[in-house]
Design goal:
Order of helices and strands: HEHEHEEHEHEE
Helix content: 25-40%
Shape: globular
Strand order of the largest sheet: 3-2-1-4-5-7-6
Distance between the termini: 35 Å
Number of helices: 5
Number of strands: 7
Structural class: alpha/beta
Length: 171
């Protein structure tokens, strides 16, 4: 049986352009980046990582899978506009296992949603341990009117499991 996060990833990428621009705001181990890079084989994936300790493993993973459409940026993800001109077709911000305060998370999500092209989609995954972030994210998502973006929340019945939010830019 698939878990909520894997189902959310499938829904998130459905019908997005293969030649688009995609962002992984939390590179971590590189698997979300690889997932998007394989899908966007004719496009570009920009992955942000400020913790250089995992970079060697990430580069090996990308080389092993022949992904040359990935641009790893060792800078704060809030610096997105320095690297990506124009809109973004999709993004993933997976906070599981990442030390990230609520303000930073809200800043990244707001920037990401603002950067989406019309009909672009984002996937935000919040660790089950970040209880305070849930309410702040819900408030942020509630501030988008239905004619700007729509949001789907997916969670498992296990309260400590991560929650996934799929955001689609309407306007």
């Amino acid at each position: 049986m698939e878990n909520v996060i894997n189902i959310a990833k499938m829904l998130f990428m459905r019908d997005l352009p293969h030649g688009g621009v995609y962002i992984d705001f939390t590179l971590k181990d590189g698997y979300d980046t690889l997932y998007m890079a394989k899908y966007a084989s004719e496009g570009d994936v920009f992955s942000f990582e400020t913790d250089g300790s995992r970079m060697e493993n990430v580069y090996r993973l990308l080389e092993k899978n022949f992904q040359d459409n990935v641009h790893v940026v060792r800078e704060d993800p809030l610096e997105l506009k320095k690297y990506v001109r124009g809109g973004v077709d999709g993004f993933i911000a997976d906070t599981t296992g990442v030390v990230l305060d609520e303000e930073k998370l809200i800043g990244i999500v707001s920037l990401a949603v603002d950067s989406l092209k019309k009909n672009g989609r984002g996937l935000v995954v919040v660790d089950g341990e970040m209880f305070g972030a849930y309410e702040r994210l819900r408030q942020t998502f509630a501030s988008y009117s239905r004619d700007v973006a729509s949001v789907i929340e997916m969670t498992e019945s296990n309260t400590s499991a991560p929650t996934a939010y799929i955001i689609e830019k309407v306007k």
